[in-house]
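so my prof wants the structure for this chain in the tokens format not the other one, which i didnt know existed until like an hour ago. anyway here's the sequence
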Amino acid sequence: MRSSVKIQGWFWAVAVILLLWNLTGILNFMQHLNTPESLVQNSSEAERKLLGIYPLWAMMGFGVAVFGGSIAAVTLLMRRKISTFFFIASLVGIIVQMIYTLPIGIEVGPNGYWVGIMSVLLVSLAILGIWLSQYAVIKGWMKG
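here's what i got, hopefully its the right format
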């Protein structure tokens, strides 16, 4: 006989929000891959660095961040312990990408402040995912 564990509604709400956030990140990633050249040409040098082609290592970080975060959120909704691993991988990807984008955001000046704000938000949400998946393990909400 299998015992059922009552999972709090807020857990599901936060997990769905994390999934939607990361799916939006995938859209952003895909859009970044297909940025029109005309948009890049009409921007300042620093903005071109943000809008244009990232170095391979920064794009890999971006990809790991959004795809890792999406897989983490899906596995969290499936109540799988592996979600913690994917949230950690996503956080590492965020940090790698921010090594490239943060200095450029500072260089852009007032219009680049959003880079810093997004960096704080991204890291915070990744840490929230790690915490939530670990909290669910402690509460016995997760399966193998």
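also thought this was worth mentioning. Residues 39 and 51 are 8 Å apart (CA to CA).
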